[in-house]
Each structure stands twice: as structure tokens, then as C-alpha cells.
């Protein structure tokens, strides 16, 4: 199903577009993902809609079968990419889990702004983006996922998540779809 509408107060959530994450090998050119996310952030700001920039600053405890980074992240790892620096009025969420709602103030922030819908972009499709989308859905937000403004380290996981998971928890669309819906507000 394609994205059908944007609620009056819709927030953009940008997941993990930070120096350390975008330097990892990904399935789609990260430059395109960053460019589209920055374009959306600019449009949301222009329409005085909330923009949330999320970065990961650690990992949750617990064993996994797949190895993952342990210890302190290198200096600069968690800094947002130069194309997406926090602006006045943006909300920054630093997380230590895949999803942006766990043990953060994101839900309270969105509620305080009257947001009923979230538009989510970023890296990685099957982890940070999906976890945040699932949490938002469970919390009662309308969820929209911008499929051309996200990527994953694994192209198979990216494709399956978009095709099979996202339609169950929200609507999907492209950057152009979201920009068109935002521009219709001005018409």
C-alpha cells in the first residue's frame, strides 16, 4: 500500500545517519540516502513540523549469536553526518538500543508536539528503522516508511523488510511521495 496521507502533525524521524554508521558497507549508495533524508528534513522544517534526529551511542547488554561491536565507540562515531546537523527546533535522541523509543524521551516529545504520525528514514532498514517503526506502531502512531531514504548492510534483509514487514505496521512511499503531500498543504 502506498502512503495515503500525512496527519496535521507528522514528525520526521531520521535513524542513525551518523558518521560511524554511514561509513559501514551498505546495500544502496549512502550518499543518496543522506541526500533524501536531508531533503525531507528541510521540507519538514519549512512546514514547521517536528524533526527528530536519532543517533546510536552504545549497544544494549545481552548475548547474541552474531558478533557486534563492544566497548566504546571511536571518537566522532555518533556525530551526525554533515548534511544533517541538528537545527534549532530539532529534537535529538541518543539511544543504546535498536529502536528509538526504548529508554528515551521520544514518545513524550512526540506527544508534547501533538504528533499522531511519524515518517521514518535512515539506516539500517531491518534494525534501527524497523525497530523504531514497530515501537511507533505499538504506541498508536500512524507510521510511514520512506523506502528510498533507507538502506541496510544486507540487501536481502532490506528487501524482505520493505516487502513483508513494513506493510503490516504502516504505509510505504518515496521521498517524492512525502514531498508531494507536504506541498499539497501549501496549495
Automatic annotation (TrEMBL):
Q: Which Pfam families match?
A: Isochorismatase
Q: Which GO terms describe its molecular function?
A: hydrolase activity
Q: Which domain of life is it from?
A: Bacteria
Q: Which UniProt keywords apply?
A: Hydrolase
Q: Where does the Isochorismatase-like domain start and stop, copy by copy?
A: 10-177
> What InterPro entries does its record include?
Isochorismatase-like_dom (IPR000868), Isochorismatase-like_hydrls (IPR050272), Isochorismatase-like_sf (IPR036380)
Q: Which protein, by its recorded name, is this? A: Cysteine hydrolase
Question: What species was this sequence derived from?
Answer: Lichenifustis flavocetrariae
